[in-house]
Write a structure and sequence with these properties.
The structure holds two protein chains of two kinds. Chain A is mainly alpha-helical. Chain A has seven helices and no strands. Chain A is globular and about 65 Å long. In chain B, the strands form three sheets. Chain B has a three-stranded antiparallel β-sheet, with no helix packed on it. Chain B has a two-stranded antiparallel sheet with strand order 4-5. Classes of the chains: A mainly alpha, B mainly alpha.
Chain lengths: 250, 442
């Protein structure tokens, strides 16, 4: 059942030959591409991300969305430091990500063979993230309805936390294709953190809530005037890829 | 038989080269001087497509009325000016009337070229005759009716243009006069920098005080301290014209082209003369407006936009980085009455001139995707009214008008004048018809 071990010699040879080929490739490229005159430039050229607009769910069904909003609100509960995951838009972030290239693993190799990997290798199964959410959420809903007579969102917060803890410990059975309970929990936790801390242009971190909490200045890129000011708070508020409220006077 | 023929041919050749040699040196000098005249007149800029054969026809000059395409002026007999005589060419440069009596639109800057000396025009002709002939038919006049009526230029010229040679000012130095000749004549700086009258002719009372080019504003280049180059030293002005960059500013857009094709190829004596002349122009100083108060909401919004979008290159205090990122503090370009260039730079981005003296071509990124109209307006209002600058605020409506516009080909405003003349003529004709009819109706 295990794959034949790769002889280290042949592997090193392979790596060496890759290095040589890429070296050759880059060398010939450098030779072929010489710029004279001015550097390439076009007016109006920019490649900004397409901002996520608020509105109807794109990937989630209404029931799924209610469950995910409840989950992200327990992973990032509202407290005196910041708003909760739901209000910060984490579910919207995940919804739009699952509807896009991430959800469909469109940039990953997704053909077999599918072998169980090491924990450090992450998910090695057949499903893409969109399929894992669909299957995982359905299994959780079925499980809770069987056990408690209602879905995740309808549970009191204490029971929600208890269930998520069991999920994290792998004490609930989820379809193996979805990565199992632990795998699914880690996936949702990972995506929730991404939604909470990434640029608001992607739908989460609404109002730059997490950046304000941390004092992270966002997409500013020039700190020369502060380099020598030690032990002082950086005074400027955060800025997102799409701007900041301070930019608008009207 | 054949040997004899060869000898004769060889003899003919020897004789031929001998005579060519006699006047060759003279002719070669003339051609070289003519080539320099073409540089001064920047004929290439209009009459050559980017990457195209020299002088074989240029890119359309877009006007609000339609396109005018600078034609093929290589000596090709079918599609160029191979059938023109030197007299045709001289008359065209002096009066705008071309081969066969065709009246040219002043998008071809003959009102400026008409000041050129007899000798300079003759040299230019000698050079143009040596250019590689290229077959490329260009239909210059792509204006719709009634603007395509070349005869309307007769009226335009009657109203706006009296051909006359350059008249030196005996009270000034030879260098000053050389500068005046270049600026007003072959280098036609005023065709961009001088505002136009209602009829589209140069408003000579406002010479070089700045004019709109549809999407760009060619700034005041007189010695005015507020809006002109009064704060630039002689050397700084020469450096700008030679390299496109100096401690104050970087040439971009239409000026980038003027520098790359023309001023960077002028000799130092001519550049110095131009600088002496421009710096001597001291028209009534522009009024210095009250700066917009820093406490105004739009100034505070502008400051926030500036800190996040501009400060990394232009410096938190607008001091820039020498030769690379122009200083915005104390920069006359920033204080022009008209903010078109500034709006264009922020929306479209821009790349500085490329010359042997400034090969780096630093660029400014387009920010149209990130800033809305009000934000562009406010950041420019802030830049125009901070660090000692003072100028009229920029309004969001102005930005909206320019947004999405292409690179803004120079508008040849005199076309507007032509249009008006055409309308006047049509109106006149109509009036005449009416009058004729009235007795009949009565």
């Amino acid at each position: 059942m295990t794959s034949p071990p790769i002889r280290s010699g042949s592997r090193r040879e392979l790596l060496a030959s890759v290095a040589v080929t890429s070296l050759l490739a880059s060398a010939s490229e450098a030779g072929a591409r010489g710029y004279s005159g001015s550097l390439p430039f076009r007016t109006y050229s920019a490649d900004p991300p397409r901002p996520v607009l608020p509105g109807a769910w794109v990937f989630f069904t209404q029931d799924e969305a209610v469950a995910v909003e409840a989950i992200v609100d327990r992973l990032v509960p509202a407290d005196d430091l910041s708003v909760g995951g739901k209000e910060a838009g984490c579910a919207v972030f995940i919804d739009r990500q699952l509807a896009g290239p991430y959800g469909h693993s469109s940039r990953l190799y997704t053909q077999g063979p599918f072998l169980p990997g090491l924990p450090t290798q992450g998910y090695q199964g057949e499903m893409n993230p969109a399929q894992r959410y669909r299957a995982g959420l359905a299994a959780i809903d079925a499980h809770l309805k069987r056990e408690k007579g209602r879905g995740f969102a309808a549970l009191p917060a204490v029971e929600q936390d208890a269930f998520l803890t069991r999920l994290e410990k792998g004490e609930v059975t989820l379809p193996p294709g979805s990565g199992g309970a632990q795998g699914f929990f880690n996936l949702v936790l990972q995506n929730t953190m991404e939604g909470f801390f990434s640029d608001p242009v992607y739908g989460g971190n609404r109002g730059m809530a997490s950046w304000r909490m941390l004092g992270f200045p966002g997409t500013r890129y020039d700190y020369r005037d502060w380099v020598s000011k030690h032990n002082q708070r950086y005074p400027l508020p955060p800025v997102s890829i799409m701007g900041a409220p301070e930019w608008s006077a009207r | 038989m054949s040997a004899l023929r060869n000898t004769l041919a060889a003899l003919a050749l020897v004789v031929g080269t001998a005579t060519a040699h006699a006047e060759g040196a003279d002719q070669a000098d003339r051609i070289m001087r003519g080539q320099y005249q073409a540089v001064l007149g920047d004929c290439m800029a209009c009459h050559t497509r980017p990457g195209g054969a020299p002088f074989a026809g240029g890119l359309p000059l877009e006007t609000p009325f339609g396109a005018l395409v600078p034609p093929n002026i290589t000596p090709d007999p079918e599609t160029g000016i191979g059938q023109w005589s030197e007299a045709d060419f001289t008359r065209m440069m002096r009066t705008g009337i071309g081969h066969g009596g065709r009246r040219l639109y002043p998008a071809m800057p003959y009102p400026a070229y008409s000041l050129m000396t007899e000798r300079d025009i003759a040299d230019l002709w000698a050079y143009l005759a040596t250019v590689e002939p290229v077959a490329n038919r260009v239909v210059a006049n792509q204006l719709p009716f009634p603007f395509n009526i070349r005869l309307s230029m007769l009226f335009w010229n009657l109203l706006n243009f009296t051909p006359q040679p350059f008249r030196p000012d005996p009270a000034q130095s030879a260098e000053w006069n050389r500068g005046a000749y270049l600026v007003q004549g072959p280098a036609h700086c005023g065709s961009c920098h001088t505002p136009k009258t209602m009829l589209g002719a140069d408003d000579t009372s406002q010479a070089l005080r700045g004019a709109s080019l549809q999407g760009w504003f060619a700034p005041d280049i007189t010695g005015d301290p507020q809006t002109g180059i009064g704060g630039w030293s002689q050397e700084e002005l020469v450096t700008y014209l030679r390299t496109g960059v100096n401690a104050h500013s970087v040439a971009s857009g239409p000026m980038r082209e003027a520098v790359e094709n023309s001023t960077s190829r002028m000799n130092d004596a001519d550049l110095r003369a131009i600088a002496v002349y421009l710096r001597s122009l001291r028209p009534a100083a522009s009024p210095v407006p009250q700066p917009v108060a820093a406490s105004e909401p739009r100034m505070r919004a502008g400051a926030a936009v500036y800190a996040a979008n501009c400060a990394a290159c232009h410096g938190a205090e607008g001091t820039g980085a020498r030769q690379l990122f122009p200083a915005l503090a104390g920069n006359p370009l920033v204080r022009q009455a008209n903010a078109e260039t500034l709006v264009h730079l922020v929306l479209a981005g821009s790349q500085g001139a490329h010359t042997p003296g400034a090969p780096t071509t630093p660029a400014m990124p387009s920010l149209a995707w990130r800033l809305n109209d009000a934000q562009v307006a406010d950041v420019l209002t802030y830049v125009r009214n901070s660090w000692g600058n003072a100028a009229a605020p920029v309004l969001p409506e102005q930005v909206a008008k320019q947004r999405g516009g292409g690179d803004g080909m120079p508008l040849w405003p005199w076309i507007a004048g032509a249009a008006m003349v055409v309308c006047l003529v049509l109106l006149g004709l109509l009036a005449v018809c009416r009058r004729r009819r009235r007795p009949l109706a009565a």
